[in-house]
Amino acid sequence: MRVTQQMLHQNSVRNMNQNLSRFEKTNSQVASGKMLERPSDNPNGVSQAMSLKSSLAANGQYEKNINETNLWLDETDQTIGKMTDVMQRVRELTVNGNNGTLAPEDRATIAAEIKELANQLEEFSKAKVNGQDLFAAAAGGEREFTISSGITIKGSVSKEALFGPDNQLIQSVKDWADSISNGQEVKLDEFDAGFNQLLSVQSEIGARANRVEAFENRMLDNNLQLKKMLSSIEDVDYAEAMIRLKSEESVYQASLASSAKIIQPTLMDFLR
Q: How far is CA 70 from CA 232, 242, 250, in A?
């Protein structure tokens, strides 16, 4: 086959453009720090990267849900803790009030404080988080949060779980105050049953918080693995890329030099 000057010219230009394209691509990767700039760079890698990003996005939503769950659980735990402090004081006063030697005015003083404590319990029962009731009005109305795929957890408890139907515990505290004021003995086993119920619910809240923490730690570990896998697909190895960039720059410069020798201007070029 006869090799013409035009063929040499075309081959030289094609090779030079290919070398330039590789050089520009590597230079762009070094500048951006990313291996994948368009789907055609690595279709399989792009697909894997999209899947990993989707998983990271889902974990991002779970993280928000976990943060909100922790907020509700923390507020629930702290509020119940305040309730138990109140109930401990109620028990101290009740024990004192059961003393048959107390004068009527002393009983009245104790009864007045117990009623005030009952009002505090009632106020705590109306606590809010971000403008929403912390304690649901009835069992089954507690707030639930999705903290992982297919995993939901309750972030609060109902008033019924805390105080019994119709806020019975709070009403009982008020009744105890009346009993003490009237010189009647309060049965401490009734008090202890209500107090232990608060402690039981608080213990359950603690167990839920521990479960959420376990899921949070697992998710954080999962995120680290996903980001590591994504980095291995997307991110540039700068040391390797810089060596490749220098090599491709040298190849391109060499192609320019060789093309300059091959593509010599002819007499016809000057006569055009």
A: 33, 46, 58
